[in-house]
Structures are given as C-alpha cells and as structure tokens.
C-alpha cells in the first residue's frame, strides 16, 4: 500500500512538471525562434555537456550528486539559441540518466528520470527568458554575452535550486528548511566558478571561437576535483565514527544496542527542541561516541555483576574525560567534544567531570544524558542489552524517575521532549 501511494505521488510530480515544461518550451519558442545558422562546430558544446554529466560528484551518503553541464548549456544558448539549449539539457540528462536507471530496479526510477529531464527543461527555459528579458528591457546589454550569460545562469540556477530542494524534500522526508540550507550551501560553493566558466564559454560561442571552448573544461574539472576531495574527507569522517563504535561494541556487547537506541532518540529529541537538522545529526554522532572513553576503563568493572564501590565508580567516571581525549586529535570531532565530555554533568552542579551548573552545560550534553539514563534504566529484551547488576524498569517507571529527577539530575525541557518521543512510539 505504501509503495502504491509513493508511485501515485511520483506520477503526480512527473505530470505536473511535464505540463509546466511543455508550456514554457512553447512560450520560449514564440519569443526566440530557432537560429537558422547551421555550423557543425557548435556541437562541441553538447559534447562537453554530456562529458560533464558523466563526471558527477557524490557529495553525501544520501546520494546527492552534482554535475557540471550548466556552463556548456549556457554556451549553446548563445551559439544556437534557447531552443537548442533546452534540447541539449534534456538530451544530456536523458542519456546520462538512462545509464543509471538501467542499474536500478525501482518502480519509480524511470519516473524520476523523466522528472529530472523536466527540471532541466524548466530551468533552461527560465534561464532563456531571463536572457531574452534582459536583451529587450535593457538595450545597452543587448549583445553583451558576458552579462546576458549571468542573467541566463541566475535564472537557471534559482529555479533549479528551488525545484531540486523541493524534490529532495519529497524524496527524503527531511524538513524543508534543512533541505533548503544544505542545497543552498552547495549551490553557493559551485555557482561562482560556474558563472566565470559560463561567461567564458558564452563569449567564445558568441564570437564563434569554438576551437577554444574545449579548454574551458579545465576549471570545471578543477572544481570537480575539489568537491570530490571534500566528499572523500566527509566519508572518512563517518568511517572513523563507524570504526570507533565497532571497537567499543566488540569490547562490550551491551554497548551495541545501547548506542544505536540512544543515538536515534537523541537526534529526535534534538529536533523537538528546535535544533537544526545538521545540528541534530551532530547530536546523533556524539551520542554514538559518548561512551567511547570506556575503552580505557577496566573491563572487569564494566562487566562486574555487583554494584561498584566508590573507588571503582571514580575510575569508571573518568570515561567522559577519556572519551574527549581519544577524539581530540580528530579535527572533525572538535564541535562535539564538549558534548561528550559533559554528558554526565547535572543541572544542580553535582555531575562530573567538571561539576558544571545548569547554564554551563551544553544542551546537547543534556539530551544525551536523559536518553542515556532512560536506556540504562529500561534495558532491553535484546540479548546482551540488560545490565548485569540490576533488573530493568518498565517504561512508566523510567519516565517517572526522569520526571522526579528533573531540575536536579536532568534538564526539565529535555525530559519533557523525550517523554513526548517515547509516548509517540519513536523510541
């Protein structure tokens, strides 16, 4: 049933964008008819656009891809007119997309390919309208290829930005604002170089200097290399998190399910408290690693079936500081180090390792503290998740204990938000 609803939703997007694309193409054609000049040299532009489309960069684990066709599509608009630019963008997207669809078995893959083709067509149409509008409204810019190219790329880029953000929101289910922010950061990084390259291509195309246009692929490849390096650094960051987590959970089997549950719930609570999507994901990463310092704790104490003595507790309590020390050399963990260091602090100032009072404790640490305590109290029916020295509480008992300790051991706002998460079945 869920698959059927998803298919219907994708079909609606496909049809809606298709209607808009066809209407815009017809409108552009009436304003800027076909260029009758037929010189084979201009075909270098579609060839470079297709090459760029087959050299994408994967920018995230969610599969976000960036391609570099826009400067060359803009060049086609100057060499042969807007209609050929629209046709080039649609054809390039279709050819490259078809190669990807063949490797997938999703029922909606072909529809999403069509949607991408329509997005490209709509974006190119708006870019062409911006170019034509500039020519007719400001005659002093008529014939200025560089300025007209900026208008074309701004029109294309803005529409493409909003459409891609919308589609990413529909596909991922993440909050609209979060998709908007992540897509905007990506667009800003690449658009400046896009514009410079596009202006060069437009000027060369406008002057019919097609033999020099292939050299403009060099800065595009440089941008691709830079983005690829950034993506690899991000991937290494997540691989480090995974390796550290596996190291801990292999040493202490109880930790495996505990970390997964705490991380998931901590992210949800962070969102409830108004943290941005990226900040909430950072809370999740911190929650995964909050007990990493237990690697340095005596294993006999972690697996001890009886209650620990005061001296033994003092030793175990050092794990928060040790965790921060272990992660400190990794630059990517800089922002979450304080959250891990202080996840056992208390609003009443009786926590450790620094005995911070309420205003000094990071909100992210308070979130981890509440979720961590709840999971420790309730345990789990999963083998190996129950702590050996006590029986687990029921959900109601654990929530009541969190409420009783609100304002002293735990932050009241965090407890309230976490209670809502549990009552809605999201834990």
What does this structure look like?
This protein is an all-alpha fold and 427 residues long. The protein folds into two domains: 2-229, no CATH class; 252-423, Hypothetical protein af1432. Helices cover 67% and strands 1% of the residues. The protein contains 17 helices and two strands. It has helices at residues 2-31, 44-53, 70-79, 82-101, 109-137, 145-172, 176-206, 217-251, 254-272, 277-289, 299-302, 310-316, 319-327, 337-341, 363-378, 395-404, 412-423, and strands at residues 57-58, 65-66. Strands 1-2 form a two-stranded antiparallel sheet. A hairpin with a 6-residue loop joins strand 1 (57-58) and strand 2 (65-66). Helix 2 (44-53) packs antiparallel against helix 3 (70-79), helix 3 (70-79) packs antiparallel against helix 4 and helix 8 packs across helix 9. 35% of the residues are buried.
Brief synopsis:
This protein is an all-alpha fold.
Highlighted features:
17 helices; two-stranded antiparallel sheet; 2 domains; single chain; Hypothetical protein af1432; mainly alpha
Fold topology:
Elements: H1 2-31, H2 44-53, E1 57-58, E2 65-66, H3 70-79, H4 82-101, H5 109-137, H6 145-172, H7 176-206, H8 217-251, H9 254-272, H10 277-289, H11 299-302, H12 310-316, H13 319-327, H14 337-341, H15 363-378, H16 395-404, H17 412-423
Antiparallel strand pairs: 1-2
Helix pairs in contact: 1-5, 2-3, 2-4, 3-4, 3-6, 3-7, 4-5, 5-6, 6-7, 7-8, 8-9, 9-10, 9-15, 9-17, 15-16
């Amino acid at each position: 049933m869920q698959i059927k609803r998803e298919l219907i939703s994708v079909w609606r997007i496909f049809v809606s964008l298709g209607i808009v694309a066809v209407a815009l193409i017809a409108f552009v054609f009436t304003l800027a008819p076909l260029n009758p000049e037929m010189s084979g040299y201009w075909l270098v532009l579609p060839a470079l656009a297709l090459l760029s489309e087959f050299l994408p960069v994967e920018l995230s684990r969610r599969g976000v891809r960036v391609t570099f066709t826009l400067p060359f599509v803009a060049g086609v608009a100057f060499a042969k007119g807007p209609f050929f630019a629209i046709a080039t963008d649609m054809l390039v997207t279709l050819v490259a997309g078809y190669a990807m669809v063949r490797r997938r078995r999703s029922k909606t893959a072909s529809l999403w390919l069509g949607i991408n083709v329509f997005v490209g067509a709509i974006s190119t149409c708006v870019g062409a309208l911006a170019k034509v509008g500039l020519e007719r409204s400001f005659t002093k810019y008529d014939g200025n290829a560089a300025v007209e190219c900026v208008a074309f790329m701004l029109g294309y880029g803005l529409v493409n930005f909003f459409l891609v953000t919308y589609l990413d929101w529909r596909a991922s289910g993440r909050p609209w604002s979060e998709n908007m922010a992540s897509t905007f950061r990506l667009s800003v990084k690449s658009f400046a170089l896009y514009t410079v390259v596009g202006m060069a291509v437009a000027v060369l195309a406008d002057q019919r200097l097609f033999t020099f246009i292939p050299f403009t692929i060099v800065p595009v490849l440089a941008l691709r290399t830079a983005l690829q390096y950034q993506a690899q650094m991000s991937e290494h960051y997540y691989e480090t998190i995974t390796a550290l987590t596996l190291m801990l959970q292999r040493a202490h089997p109880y930790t495996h399910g505990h970390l997964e549950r705490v991380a998931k719930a901590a992210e949800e609570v962070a969102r409830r408290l108004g943290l941005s999507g990226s900040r909430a994901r950072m809370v999740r990463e911190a929650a995964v690693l909050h007990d990493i310092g237990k690697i340095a704790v005596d294993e006999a104490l972690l697996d001890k079936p009886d209650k620990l003595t005061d001296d033994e507790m003092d030793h175990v309590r050092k794990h928060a500081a040790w965790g921060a020390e272990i992660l400190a050399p990794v630059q990517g963990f800089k922002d979450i180090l304080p959250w891990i260091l202080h996840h056992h602090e208390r609003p009443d100032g009786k926590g450790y390792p620094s005995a911070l009072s309420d205003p000094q404790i990071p909100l992210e640490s308070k979130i981890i503290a509440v979720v961590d305590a709840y999971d420790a109290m309730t345990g789990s029916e999963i083998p190996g998740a129950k702590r050996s020295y006590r029986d687990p509480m029921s959900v109601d008992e654990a929530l009541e204990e969190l409420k009783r300790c609100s304002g002293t051991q735990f932050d009241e706002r965090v407890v309230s938000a976490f209670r809502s998460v549990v009552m809605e079945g999201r834990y």
